[in-house]
Amino acid sequence: MDDAVTNSPVPSVRSCRTGAWLVGARGSVATTAVLGAAAVRAGLAGPVGLVSELPSLAPAALPSLEDVVLGGHDVVVTGYRKRAEVLAAQGVVPRDLVVALGAELDAADADVVVPAAEPDQRRRVAALAAAMRDFHGRHDLDRLVVVDVSSTQPPLDTDDAELVTDLASPEAVRAAWDAGRSPLPASAEAVWAAYEAGAAVVAFTPSPGVGVPAVAELGRRAGVPWAGADGKTGETLLKSVLAPMFVQRALHVDSWSSFNILGGGDGQALADPVAARSKTATKAAALEAIVGRPVPGPLHIDYVADLGDWKTAMNHVGFTGFLGTRMQLQFTWQGCDSALAAPLVLDLVRLLAACADAGRSGAVPELGFFFKDPVGSHEHALAEQWHALLGLVDELAGRRP
Amino acid sequence: MDDAVTNSPVPSVRSCRTGAWLVGARGSVATTAVLGAAAVRAGLAGPVGLVSELPSLAPAALPSLEDVVLGGHDVVVTGYRKRAEVLAAQGVVPRDLVVALGAELDAADADVVVPAAEPDQRRRVAALAAAMRDFHGRHDLDRLVVVDVSSTQPPLDTDDAELVTDLASPEAVRAAWDAGRSPLPASAEAVWAAYEAGAAVVAFTPSPGVGVPAVAELGRRAGVPWAGADGKTGETLLKSVLAPMFVQRALHVDSWSSFNILGGGDGQALADPVAARSKTATKAAALEAIVGRPVPGPLHIDYVADLGDWKTAMNHVGFTGFLGTRMQLQFTWQGCDSALAAPLVLDLVRLLAACADAGRSGAVPELGFFFKDPVGSHEHALAEQWHALLGLVDELAGRRP
Amino acid sequence: MDDAVTNSPVPSVRSCRTGAWLVGARGSVATTAVLGAAAVRAGLAGPVGLVSELPSLAPAALPSLEDVVLGGHDVVVTGYRKRAEVLAAQGVVPRDLVVALGAELDAADADVVVPAAEPDQRRRVAALAAAMRDFHGRHDLDRLVVVDVSSTQPPLDTDDAELVTDLASPEAVRAAWDAGRSPLPASAEAVWAAYEAGAAVVAFTPSPGVGVPAVAELGRRAGVPWAGADGKTGETLLKSVLAPMFVQRALHVDSWSSFNILGGGDGQALADPVAARSKTATKAAALEAIVGRPVPGPLHIDYVADLGDWKTAMNHVGFTGFLGTRMQLQFTWQGCDSALAAPLVLDLVRLLAACADAGRSGAVPELGFFFKDPVGSHEHALAEQWHALLGLVDELAGRRP
Amino acid sequence: MDDAVTNSPVPSVRSCRTGAWLVGARGSVATTAVLGAAAVRAGLAGPVGLVSELPSLAPAALPSLEDVVLGGHDVVVTGYRKRAEVLAAQGVVPRDLVVALGAELDAADADVVVPAAEPDQRRRVAALAAAMRDFHGRHDLDRLVVVDVSSTQPPLDTDDAELVTDLASPEAVRAAWDAGRSPLPASAEAVWAAYEAGAAVVAFTPSPGVGVPAVAELGRRAGVPWAGADGKTGETLLKSVLAPMFVQRALHVDSWSSFNILGGGDGQALADPVAARSKTATKAAALEAIVGRPVPGPLHIDYVADLGDWKTAMNHVGFTGFLGTRMQLQFTWQGCDSALAAPLVLDLVRLLAACADAGRSGAVPELGFFFKDPVGSHEHALAEQWHALLGLVDELAGRRP
């Protein structure tokens, strides 16, 4: 493999001033992304964790991190410096960086909007789209990519017939608005606003958004690309390499028990069983898709406050080999959620900006590599997703028409 | 992935009576292979564990297990039924199978040769080649594949200048014999004999054999294919999917600590630090090749008698992500060595027979999927090896000239 | 420690023909106990797993296993030989023992009663007491100990005021019967019958029984001893040694996450969240009692069919040391439930018979060593429970009046 | 258990100005102890990790941490503030404490002596004793306790007959000095000096010292108490609670495989196989003593640089239960060496000072609770050691004459 992480420079020649609009701009992932982008720009951090800096992706000539401007919106008002200090205290980011880049963090606060309270969904969405356009104009951007890194929200209630009808098309949504209803789930409002503002969209959470029929149709009409859903940073990442191994070796997976504990804001959100349903659904998808059938075994996500941003996954796999011999694999993944997710956010902004630049619109299945539940693709095996990503790199490099 | 293990029949149409000559024919792996092949033939065992029965390999039209005859040689004289009963007591194979297939096991004893004591290496090798030819003739075989599943032996002493000279070519070996020396390492004698007998060779252990220059040259002259080395059944199998994951995600592997405990004959052999050197060398190769640099961390193999054939690997990986955040992955693999290795032996016999049938000679790098230290290839990532294997299937299917 | 497991004989001089009446006599634990007792008597199994055979317990002069007769009742009719063969196939017990002791297993079937269907609780209980008395008489027993090893049942509904009133005293129970109600929970019927028959009782499950006020009062009036509740064989056993370690070292346990997966009958029963409530309550008790406060962290018990009788507990402990440094302990316990529980059942029968013989009545807190939720004691630390057990041994040895 | 860690104040009334002389005063453990003592005194850190602050130890009326003065010697000259900053960067201690207590750290440097190069052992020892007396006098101490927290050194070469003779008595040591030899191992020099200076000694490492015959005799003549050897902070701590559990439950431990990885200075010292021999010897002692026989299984200690002060122990225990059923326990301990060891150093200084105050001399076996290889005791089970410690508390409280 020629992709060992090195410090060798990667040419990034696509001249494309790119805006990244973070939905949930004050969260841990967003804060780490803002700090990290500043650190890389200042030469204080290397490319570790950034897929977009791997030699294999160099031919895509992605927009440089120098050319990426971060902004977004959040209901939280605490500034980046304060948020970053909290993360440093938890060991998520180095305190030295927070100290060295305090001015950059303070400056970044200027690009975070706190939406005004507005009961009318249509006006709320319009205000958001206006804020995005304003950000676009103020920074003289070539492209804007909206990334949802806000708290996970529950899946759509598909038993609600009126809701399903209201979300069938952009026209139906507007008709529902006319009738005084607010059909869009909260997580879809920013996506709708993004498409109204001509922005590409990354669904980094499992919340309903890019997959809602009306929203997807709006995106198609806007001619922008999108990618999702739900960043693959831990347990599912491991499943996406381990499950193919069992399949290719003809070993029968009898059960796969998945226990996740985490603290932090994400943990708190997932402690709500209704919100967690989106997450457990995307987490289960990979295994079933790779093994080709549902695999028995519990999947729990539990909030354990003292773990903070440290997500620990303990998995137990029971499998059968030749002549019925039963064997086991266990693993424990102790990952820092923000440290794993933040660079992928930057990767996706760069990649989706390049896709938009190259005229791609609609779901970009080749970005499934980054997601638990890839839109536009049924491929969950990481190695196959990696090859698809390299194919996209070839396309962006103009090597494939 | 469309390779979920199913019970659907796979067409095996290559009519090719194939002999499998097992070096170390009384060992656990060989005994499990003999029992397992009989069980599959009798319809008492399914395809689980057999890569060659996966739908993806069907186009290769491999010789059917019905057409595979197992024999070999060993210094041990205990019969298969007795050996299988011991394995059943350890939970390695089901006792029901041993009872049901007692007659088949007894019959298989007839094809195991105990070599006569013979101090002269040239004569020892010649006697072995004669035994192989006899087996070939007696069973009216189309092909013979010799598989080394004997105890691991130490690597060549490359500081021994005379030895290196003696092993430089077939002629040098013969000249050494003329001079009364025995240059071939014990593990290479059977390979030499195999090539003399026109057989293909699978090096399922890390012992020196197919890679010895004189031996490789003899193989080339014989026009037969070979594959190796050292079956990949546990810790290294996991490394070959986990290490690419770290690389493709741009995560920096700081250390990888590998602790292996196992009992049984293999464990006893590896308790000898000199013999273990072959094994630790092949085990280390994968990680370094995939990560692109040596990775710090101990690699121990320890003999723990009570584990029997159950090989337990405990690994600890320290890695760094974005902005220097340090994280950990641990895994424990509790595998049954024979249950994992035996079906691969049958897979390799079928695949190498098909390769021979298709006119392939020399090292077959596309079989690297099965090995810790693939001959003729520097690729260690399992997913890439799987694609190479599928390419070989295409070739065998006549879809690629 | 002078209690290393040895094969040295332990004097058992208390002449006391003891009956063991197993509630759930056909379950895995009961079957393993019946097979195991026969194996020890026949000299085919050693004392491993039997606490009552440790040198430290010799002074108690417990009734010999030779003098223990096993019987009981169950709705299941499958014979012991068949049940034992199933356990052997799962690796829970050695098949050789099942073959060698087939006659003994068949003979044991004669002492298992299948209760006739009887809708009236009073008559059901009376019939059970009669069956116990019959067993007592038929085998000319000195003592009878009833052991509940049946499926776990849900805790009492303490919100049901009428039920609480009905269970307040033996008289209240009888009045409820007169009024046509069936106040006793199913798990308490056998305990009631036991006390009616003058038998001692071991509550090896967390089901409501010995702790129900009316039942406890009946036991006190019967003057018999009892012990419970819920055999401590795995995760809680570990907690009862690890938690004191943290406390004695002044380390602060921040969270303790407990994940249990198991198959088998017990697993199926616990897959019912209502029944599982009894179990999770007893499991949580130990940790809180030892640490002195509730410890955050999830506690899951999940049914994973392929594990069979193999109970796997994966625990993650987050703890804080000096100056706030955060650390972790993880463990995985892979135990065979029946192999762990069955010898404790035999231990408890012998110990409780000796207690009865020595005139003890009421709860025996010194037997807390064996239980997750010791009746009559708030001590959960295993080492302290061990000392209490040794104190009981002293008492039984007549060394303490 | 009434020893839950709380913040309730513990009375410490023994008026006893106590000096702690740290051998290896600049190491991680010593630095953490100096910082931690200052933090507790300043009310910036609580009692977590300090056994001496548990309610159970209050009756001993140990000297208050207010009354403990830390000093010592080391060849390293880097000041405490700098050392503490490095530890903070590794997450071993909180940076806030280092900042807040910078002045106290700088002040502590005044009490650290860098010994002058001196080839003559007698003079080297005399200079050390003089430095200790000077420290004693300067701070007007009532008691001095010398604690060895320096790098682990190899065990004595008992095959060296002259050395054994030289170390047989204080007189023999002095005769050897007269003859120009330097018989004391480096680690024993400070112990000798301590006894010369009338100080008590804590052997926190496994290096030869308090156990050397001549040294022990000198200590007896000095009438001071000592304790050791080798602080029990991780793997062995766990063994000392888990092994008794197996024994008391009559479970047969078949194998115990112990894999330790650590970075830092301690890791580097132990990467030297000769020095490591002291450590592996003390580590093996506990298990054999508790189980009552040698337990098979490897014991490795490997240096893995990126782990820093984080000591990770991965253990695999194979054990047999009733009827021969084989089961497994695995655990992973991820501890911070300094955070675990430093408070024990402070505990031992307070306890040993109180022992001296109470007139104890010679080895104090009741302090075995803190050590891997307790001097003067064969008890390794933590719970028994805890009871012995409580007995010592009773004695110090004047409740036992």
UniProtKB/TrEMBL annotation, chains A, B, C, D:
Q: Which InterPro entries match?
A: Myo-inos-1-P_Synthase, Myo-inos-1-P_Synthase_GAPDH, NAD(P)-bd_dom_sf
Organism of derivation: Aquipuribacter nitratireducens
User: Member of which family?
Assistant: Belongs to the myo-inositol 1-phosphate synthase family.
UniProt name for this protein: Inositol-3-phosphate synthase
List, alphabetically, the PANTHER family matched. Answer: MYO-INOSITOL-1 PHOSPHATE SYNTHASE
Q: Describe the location of the Myo-inositol-1-phosphate synthase GAPDH-like domain by residue ranges.
A: 234-338
